[in-house]
Amino acid sequence: MPTFTAPDGTELAYHLRGEGEPLVVLPGGPMRASAYLGDLGGLTAHRRLVLLDLRGTGDSAVPADPATYRCDRQVDDVEALRAHLGQERIDVLAHSAGGSLALLYAARHPRRVSRLALITATPWALGRPATAEDRLAAARLREDEPWFAAAFPAFEAWLAGEGDPDWSAVAAFFHGRWDDTARALEAATDEQTNAEAEERFFGPGAFDPPALRTAFAAVTAPVLVLAGELDGGPRPELARLVADAFPNAEFAVQPRAGHYPWLDDPRWFAGRARAFLDGVPVAAGMPPA
Length: 289
What we know:
Elements: E1 3-5, E2 11-17, E3 22-26, E4 48-53, H1 75-85, E5 90-95, H2 98-108, E6 113-119, H3 132-139, H4 148-159, H5 167-170, H6 180-187, H7 189-192, H8 195-201, H9 209-216, E7 223-228, H10 236-244, E8 249-254, H11 261-264, H12 266-277
Parallel strand pairs: 3-4, 3-5, 5-6, 6-7, 7-8
Antiparallel strand pairs: 1-2, 2-4
Helix pairs in contact: 1-2, 3-4
């Protein structure tokens, strides 16, 4: 297991999977170990994934200062990884909350990013979190699912902060396919997530939306924003705001996908991600080859 040292002395780990040009992968959660990402739907057949365990997660060490869990404080970790890999510029793929870290990295180090893929990433950096109304609207798209009638009241209670609802019911709304693979991913959440770090990741002061909008407008690297059709956090129209903030961005919605699109349709996801990373145009509304 390779490691490197962050600027504050914290030893960080990353995992290598697959073959090809390196692709730095930032996990979500927030603050979940990178193991849940697997092979990203078979993307390892085309790229060498460099899966970072963020500080305090997975095989990375716990920092001396817990304030460094805030996502803007971790930008230096990503830059240290780039330097450790010996890459002048890096392709970056980030999932969910990891998208916030990737956006902050691109804003601070625009010349170090060659391509940036943001997967089901909510635009926290633009001051636009997903709302309860967003999530409920997406959830109602699942009314034809056999589990919907039993799960929806638990989902409403979770969004309202009413007690501790059955997460096995709530979690179904995060997946386009609620099958054994999705259940296994959800079952591993607690053991893979640093709860203290999760609470601090989006801490006050992490984002300056007006300044970040200005910074994003100056990023020339190609950007892919990929949303899941059935995802409520973010819904596609919310995710599109991220694409609109960049001068060279493309926006894609994966059909019938939730928050983990590589599980819902691995071939579609890997094909679309590969096309972007290879700079291959994809016609609007058409599936990737």
